[in-house]
Amino acid sequence: MSNQEVARAFNEIADMLELKGENPFRIRAYRRAAQNIEALSVEVSELDEESLQKIPGIGKDLAQKIREFVERKTIKQLEELRKEIPSGLLQILLVPGIGPKTAKTVYDRLGISTIEELERACKEGRLSGLPGIKKKTEDNILKGIAMLKMGRERMPLGRARPLAEEIVSELKKLKEVGRIEIAGSLRRWKETVKDIDILVTSREPMKVMNAFVRLPQVQDVLLKGPTKSSVMLREGIQVDLRVVEEESFGAALQYFTGSKAHNIKIRERAMKLGLKINEYGVFREEDNKKVAGKTEEEVYEAIGLPFIEPELREDLGEVEAAEEGRLPELIETSDIRGDLHVHSRWSDGAHSIEEVAEAAIEMGYEYIAITDHSKGLGIAGGLQAEDILEEKKEVDALNRKLRKFRILMGVEVDIRSSGELDFDEEILKKLDFVVASIHSGFRQSSKQLTRRLLSAIRCPYVNVIAHPTGRILGERQEYELDMEQVLKAAKRYQKALEINAYPLRLDLKDSYARRAKEMGIPIVISTDTHMTEQFRFIRYGVEVARRAWLEKSDVLNTLPLKEFLRRIKRQR
Ligand code: DGT
Ligand code: CA
Ligand code: ZN
Question: How far is ligand 3, taken at its centre, from the CA of residue 210, in Å?
Answer without folding.
Answer: 45
